[in-house]
Amino acid sequence: MSTNLHMSKKIVIVGAGYGGTEVIRQMVLRGVRNAEIELISNRTHFENTIGGTELISEKAKPEELKYDLKELSGYWGFELTLGKAENIDLSARTIGVGSKQKDYDILVLATGSEPNFYNVKGAEFATPAYRLSHFRVLNERLREFSHTPDVVVAGAGYVGLECVAEVLDLFRAIGKRARITIVEKMDSALPTYNNVSARRIAYEYFTSRGAKFSLGKAVKEVEKDRVILEDGSSVESNLTIWTAGVTGCIVPLQVPELNLYRGCIRVNERLLIEGREDAFALGDVASVKVNGKEATKMAGEALEQAKTVARNLSLVVAGQKPHVSHVPNYTTDYPKALLSLGEGKAMLIFGPDYVSTGTTEYFLKKRIDFQEMMERFPQ
Fold this sequence. Notes:
Blueprint: E1 9-14, H1 18-29, E2 35-41, E3 45-47, E4 66-68, H2 69-76, E5 79-82, E6 85-89, E7 94-97, E8 100-103, E9 106-109, E10 113-115, E11 126-128, H3 132-144, E12 150-154, H4 158-173, E13 179-184, H5 196-208, E14 212-215, E15 219-222, E16 226-229, E17 234-236, E18 239-242, E19 246-248, E20 260-261, E21 264-266, E22 279-281, E23 286-287, E24 289-290, E25 293-294, H6 299-317, E26 336-342, E27 345-350, E28 354-358, H7 359-374
Parallel strand pairs: 1-2, 1-9, 2-5, 9-22, 11-18, 12-13, 12-18, 13-14, 21-23
Antiparallel strand pairs: 3-4, 6-7, 7-8, 10-19, 15-16, 16-17, 20-21, 24-25, 26-27, 27-28
Helix pairs in contact: 1-6
């Protein structure tokens, strides 16, 4: 990706999730030259985690949701470094990866997020639902039960409800049953979604499928055979699935110069890290708020942010100032989502007032979240 027309810029991208890979893709699509791109990843494959819940029900296979980064580097012409990025010095423009130290001209942090257990005691007894490996473990654990298990899902948000849907579908397919309790510290299903109808329909739908909700009480402690709530009551559990929240992957990066908001890196409207003109952050790791609109932590929004970052990188490489402002497409006040309900149905949430459910919505979800997400890469 470099020429000798001008001095080449060394761009280092940390994180090979939706945002990190899409920045490179957008640079390729824009035909950017005079740039050397290095991708640092602690994983060998891109993982399409938004489709991961279907690994629980065996509707999807792991290989359908992964793409080899080494193979991708050959197609797109970037350098791949496998390892954990740490000791990032924004002033010196250096990154430590293992025993090596990397220099850069421009940095892009796209490290995503990780499960947040909120210091709950006994969290080691819960299985997180975040990465593809987690969903495969859940499938294996569920298949091991010879009796009707008590399953507790901590968190009634998007991922939590999708896990419930796939657990129910798995057990229906293998002719078994499960007793499922969804524990949520807020007072509704989908509590962060600004759509009252969607919250009500989700509650009613999963209740009709046999799931029980325990609302308004946070998890205080997880034990091997039960979950203790903050009011002292408990719920029996043979398997506890943790979907109660995520946190930005800041701690492992060891970046002392960052300005954080709720564990995420504060960025300006150009997605530059506050106080820097040579470092961007996007996706789950970034706190993005532009003109009063707060961006949600969703794959679709990370892809949109990647386009903005790529446009600004193109300007920097060309010797210009990065002046493109980001316009959040997925915002907290105007939710957009396709939530799997199981049984071949999904819920479309579009804004604070519109919601629809059915098989058409599920086909749309499969098209967008599975097919289009993976078709971004060379086939």
